[in-house]
Write a structure and sequence with these properties.
The protein is of the alpha/beta class. It is built from 11 helices and 20 strands.
């Protein structure tokens, strides 16, 4: 079965049409993996799985999932083309372990461009926009490449500033008049602070929107969280959330209604599983599992991202019928049980950024002598006194319903851990368990 849908209208198709379309794409993927993937060919033979076994999308659960460790252990076995056909060598961020390699062919880069162009359209962007890219394209970072290619696919203007100083960001804003900023939300706060300190009339800048990466911008009720509401209130920019990962090579981006990131159904088949590997219902928390469609170099079938979120299947107010993914609550392997309360440390990071009590900080996850989880906020001793730390800890406790510990160390020591040269992202969560 191979149902053809107009890609310009695929997000508005009926669920029956989408199911038939994706089932056809999965059958195509199965044939491709049998022919080209040493890892999946071996897996299918060991489990005695045939394409004929996959008669419905639910039948896909007959195939075991894979995860980051499997990908790291058997990287080249996932590769479906000769290495001579690889156009870009990419790795995951390495924020929770060693980076994992993901190979991209020229066709895969075209797919990235299409994905980002469609994502930008969801955020109301067009060829009339000028995009300031405030995220790196070096350090083997897929997202920077994807955004740059997406802007060109959209035929918009592109300013490649990268993750450079606020001074260069503001020079580019005043020189080129961009309308859309692509950046980590915490960095947008730094731009506001720099503008205030240097008497820049930031509220009358050309910028109108932020496409936010790397941090959630909404809470679980889809209200703006502290960091994004601060951006909107202080600068007047509209903030749009995106969720993506290197392995899925695609993104979930929210529309103007801000009710979750929309699936691009010709690029990803989505599942959400509980602790027993059972599918969870719409509106329930689960681990995101993806099958990327249309990938040539290194396609992944039923790949566990480790990310926890709630998904929604009812039609969005924008008219799109595809499922939506809510804000990422955290990573499965970073979740802790602290003082009897389940805590997702990633929720804390953007909140602490909005407190603006220090230039850098750490969250430490550790285990005490009884084997119980501990959560500690580490502040720089040069910038935060005990009263400021106590106030910040109470504000965090109001957010997560339990009060973390705190301690002080020199800023130099914090910077050496946060700015790990082997990672392209700040490493603010240190798991010592």
């Amino acid at each position: 079965m191979n149902v053809s849908l107009d890609l310009n209208q695929i997000e508005y198709a009926t669920q029956v049409e989408l199911n038939e379309f994706q089932l056809g794409k999965i059958h195509e993927l199965f044939d491709y993996l049998v022919e080209n993937s040493p890892y999946y060919k071996r897996l299918f033979e060991e489990k005695n799985i045939q394409k004929s076994d996959i008669q419905t999308l639910d039948d896909l659960r007959k195939i075991p999932t894979t995860n980051k460790q499997t990908l790291a252990d058997h990287t080249d076995d996932f590769l479906c083309v000769p290495k001579s056909e690889i156009s870009d060598f990419t790795t995951t961020s390495g924020t929770i372990g060693n980076p994992v390699t993901v190979y991209l062919t020229a066709k895969d880069i075209d797919r990235l461009a299409y994905n980002e162009a469609m994502s930008m359209k969801k955020a109301g962007c067009s060829s009339n926009d000028v995009f300031q890219l405030a995220t790196t394209m070096d350090k083997r970072f897929m997202a920077g490449l994807a955004y740059a290619e997406g802007v060109r696919k959209l035929k918009g203007g592109l300013i490649r500033v990268g993750a450079s100083s606020p001074a260069l960001q503001w020079d580019s804003i005043e020189r080129f008049n961009p309308t859309v900023l692509i950046a980590i939300p915490a960095f947008v706060l730094a731009l506001i602070d720099y503008a205030k300190a240097n008497n820049i009339d930031y509220k009358n800048s050309s910028l109108r929107k932020v496409i936010a990466i790397g941090q959630p911008v909404r809470d679980q009720n889809f209200d703006l969280n502290k960091i994004s509401s601060t951006i909107e209130e202080e600068w007047g920019l509209q903030v749009f959330s995106t969720y993506a990962s290197t392995e899925m090579a695609a993104a979930f981006t929210e529309c103007e209604h801000g009710k979750g990131g929309h699936l691009q159904p010709d690029l990803i088949y989505f599942e959400s599983l509980n602790e027993k590997d059972e599918p969870v219902k719409s509106g329930e928390l689960g681990e995101i599992v993806i099958t990327n469609l249309g990938v040539e170099g290194m396609p992944l079938l039923r790949y566990r991202t480790g990310d926890l979120a709630v998904h929604y299947r009812e039609q969005c107010a924008c008219g799109r019928t595809t499922l939506r993914v809510g804000p990422i609550i955290g990573r499965k392997n970073q979740m802790i049980k602290f003082k009897g309360t389940t805590v997702h440390p990633q929720v804390i990071l953007p909140f602490v950024d909005t407190l603006r009590v220090c230039s850098e900080y750490l969250l430490e996850l550790s285990t005490d002598d009884l084997g119980l989880d501990n959560l500690t906020v580490v502040f720089p001793e040069e910038e935060v006194n005990d009263n400021q730390a106590t106030k910040a800890i109470q504000q965090i406790a109001d957010l997560i319903k339990v009060k973390p510990n705190y301690r002080f160390i020199p800023l130099k020591s914090i910077l050496s851990l946060v700015r790990d040269p082997s990672s392209r992202k700040p490493v603010k969560i240190h798991d010592l368990r």
